[in-house]
Amino acid sequence: MFRFILRRLLTFPLLLLAIYGGAVLLVTATPGEGLETGEKELPPEVLQQKRIAYNYDRISPVDGQIQPVPAWERYFWIWPKRLLWDGDLPAHQYEDWTVVEIMRSALPVSLQLGVLALALAVMLGIGVGVISAAQRGRWLDHVSVSLCLIGISLPTFVVGAALLIAVGLWLRAVPVGGWGRPTQALLPAITLALPYAAYIARLTRSAMLDAYAEDYIRTARAKGLPEWRVLLDHALPNALLPVLSYLGPAAAAIFTGSFVVEKIFTVPGMGTHIVESINNRDQSLILATVMVYSVFLASFNLIVDVVYGLLDPRIRVGAKAT
């Protein structure tokens, strides 16, 4: 198991470098550099100053002439150094803000919303899946399956708008937007959690039904164990394995924020900046948000693999054998 974790840690920076390289290729293939603001064209002198400030051009120390900066140097040395080491890489469309400042203001909001949404998704999904499997073929199982199908099929903007109108406007139970109070996080967290909860419920139900057909379940029942012990101690741990595999990318998607949910409820998180950076062709902000998402995705997949190995002894044996 230790060797497995070590190999994954060693490949971690290579994976991030490959993702960053692919993002750079996509950004450079898009027309424009995102330096223009508004509909009016900037004067040549102002545009030239911005090109120098954003490292597209530089003044030669030899003859004082303006010369272009090679793309590989800008994307793979200057910008990463200014972002990670100096912290002064500016966003193209936010001249008074650096990328680091934008991340510091937006990422904690998305993380807070993501923690709440992920907790709701896991609790609701596993709970509904276990109840549905335990009540297989009964009316509660049919209701659970139908609700899961609806939760997966409905887009988040429909769910969010319905909750906003029904709970926020009609019932006036919670605020309809903004951020800062616990009640303001409730509706966006529920909206963000419902599709993931529905998918987790279906995974849990399917895995529980597969576990019920195994010999060790019949052995546990033959020993006279109560049904709830058979359910929780024997069937559920194995049924959680596919759920754990799904939680890696799901947690990364939740934690980096959903731009639809954040737009509906005016949450100042990562999702808003992701959309605005793409619309504005803000190359520095695009690359930064892509790397934040990639770090979360790779990290959560690594954590899921480790937990998977702890729950399933066959993974540990396979790791030792290699």
> Unreliable segments (pLDDT under 50, ≥5 consecutive)?
none
The largest β sheet comes out as: 2 strands, antiparallel
Alpha plus pi helix count: 13
Given the C-alpha coordinates, what overall shape results?
elongated
Mean pLDDT: 82
Overall SS class: mainly alpha
- Helical amount among residues, as a percent range? over 70%
Strand arrangement within the widest β-sheet reads 1-2
Describe this structure in words.
The protein has a domain at 102-321: MetI-like (MetI-like fold). Helix content is 75%, strand content 4%. It has helices at 2-29, 44-53, 71-86, 99-134, 139-153, 156-170, 182-212, 215-222, 227-255, 259-264, 270-279, 283-311, 313-321; strands spanning 57-59, 66-68, 90-91, 94-98. It has a two-stranded antiparallel ribbon. A hairpin with a 6-residue loop joins strand 1 (57-59) and strand 2 (66-68).
